[in-house]
Write a structure and sequence with these properties.
- The complex is a heterodimer.
- By secondary structure, chain A is mainly alpha-helical.
- Chain A is built from 14 helices and two strands; from the N terminus they run H-H-H-H-H-H-E-H-H-H-H-E-H-H-H-H.
- Chain B has a single domain (2-276), classed as ABC transporter involved in vitamin B12 uptake, BtuC, CATH 1.10.3470.10.
- Chain B has eleven helices and four strands, in the order H-H-H-H-E-E-E-H-H-H-H-E-H-H-H.
- Chain B has helices at residues 2-32, 39-57, 60-83, 90-112, 138-160, 162-172, 174-179, 184-210, 217-232, 237-257, 262-276, and strands at 117-118, 128-131, 134-137, 212-213.
- The longest helix of chain B has 31 residues, at 2-32.
- Classes of the chains: A mainly alpha, B mainly alpha.
Amino acid sequence: MTAVILVAAAFLVLLPFVYESRNLFILLTQIFVFSIFAMSYDLLLGFTGIVSFGHAMFFGIGAYSMGIFMKKFEPTMGYFLLAVLVVIILTAVVSFIVGLLTLRLKSHFYAMLTLALSGLFLVLAEKWRTMTHGNDGFTFRVPEQFIDRTHFYLLCLVLVVAVFLLLKRFTNSPLGRVLQAIRENEQRTESLGYQVLHYKIAASVVSGILAGIAGILYAISLRFVNTSVFSMDITLDALLMTIIGGVGTLVGAIIGAGLIEFAHDWLTALAKEHVIFERWIIFFGIIYIVVVMFFPKGIVGTLSSLSWKRKKQQAVKKEEKAAG
Amino acid sequence: MDLFINLTLNGLATGMLIFLLAAGLTLIFGLMDVLNFAHGGLFAWGAYSGLWIYSETNSFFIGIIGAVITGFVLGILTEKWIIKPVYGNHVQQILITLGLMLVLSEMLKVIWGPNQMMASPPDYLKGSWELGGIIIIKYRVFIILVGLLIFAGVQYVLKKTKIGLVVRAGVMNKEMVQALGINIQKVFMYVFMMGAGMAALGGVLLGPYSGVIHAGMGMEFAILAFIVVVIGGMGNFKGSVLAAILVGLSGSFMAYYVPDLSLAVNMLLMAIVLIIRPQGLFGAKG
């Protein structure tokens, strides 16, 4: 598995030096941004077992903070780093407070409350016109280091790998193990003496910060930000990517992001030829329902459990041979 | 005074529409422990199918009947195919009903086109009465009356009939009802069907009230209905009507005095209720 990932990463690093296509790099950058976002969502959904409907709020905080910094101050590297710092602090504080208030609640209530809270952020972005320019949003200039698309592409790629390794490490740490225990059986984890709430808050803070970083990259790649970054659609995208790719695998989130962004791009192009493709969401909706019902582990999970079964069968055969 | 009465009537009418959506949601949650995120989709389907039948047949009454039947059919199918396989698994329920919501609202666009659809009340409900200088719009009164009628009807069924007794007992303790030899699966289906029918009724009534309908309205109203369900207490039918009126009135008054904050106030209200009193303002049990 690791070898496959390394080869894929090496291929993606070399790609810009051998192949020129502006559209492809914009698409790939977009995929990287959403990979980070979907992985941060996977930490909540796949590893801790909580469904948040308000993940867009951290994404939006990241995107808007960066946009506002670049617009109100100079678009230099210094201000960029300052903005990143501000985003990390803001998302950490917001996710901490949200987690403290909401994570005590049962899954239904939590989903609804996060939905409501991200709705509040959407309203704030719409109404605070002096800062956000309301619905229309605003464009801004980016630091000169990011003007070259290839540089930015490589930066995003590096960040995807970094976030992947970080989360891999995080979920395999003792803390990550407790999170998985919470996913499997919350009462039992609690009765073993773990403060479930503290662990859940930790997961939500890490996830929130990473989502904020994805938001930053999104804003920089578009050089434009509007209220859509706070919309329910952003959360839904992360949900679809994680579920279709496979929850609790991290790689699944990346594959899901790739598939959905790619299909989105492709189907939008097809829509110009045939009207039925304009409603591409419907295909995703149906695929999504089928996946939740029949393949709750998603692509990666289903594949790895298949190969696990095969290995087991082979092992059994070997044993039989040895015994026979 | 004129303004006050008008805002009150407006708030009550909106409240009744939200109530029609929230009533099904709260009963389904109380009885089946399922939070149906696709409920708004059923609401929008009621609106589209009802108004389409209304424009084809030129009879608003037949349109309403058609919408309710659409709701029933969709409700039965949803319960059978989508909800039943995931009973008991909360995370999967949330995910799958959300997926259904996507499919339902996109299907609307496929069938009736992505544009808004205009709607106006039939002639006998158009216009307004004038009482001592106060103008009262007929259609709003009509919505309030329908809402009250439905409330009274459901309340009667819950309190006075055998099936109502089973439903109320099921909300309290599902296993016990099953242990007494009652086929609760069948009751689930009826409740889901009724809930979907009420949502569809709310949708078709909304059309002429707001003038236009669009596929995104399902989600908008579903959020309001969730707020109502939380404030009223999950599974609490009476609580849902009180909370719906509260949310409707606060929405209508806020929209007039502080339009920027009308949605935010309701969301804040829900957040506060969830944090301080998760069992709901009017609920005794969580």
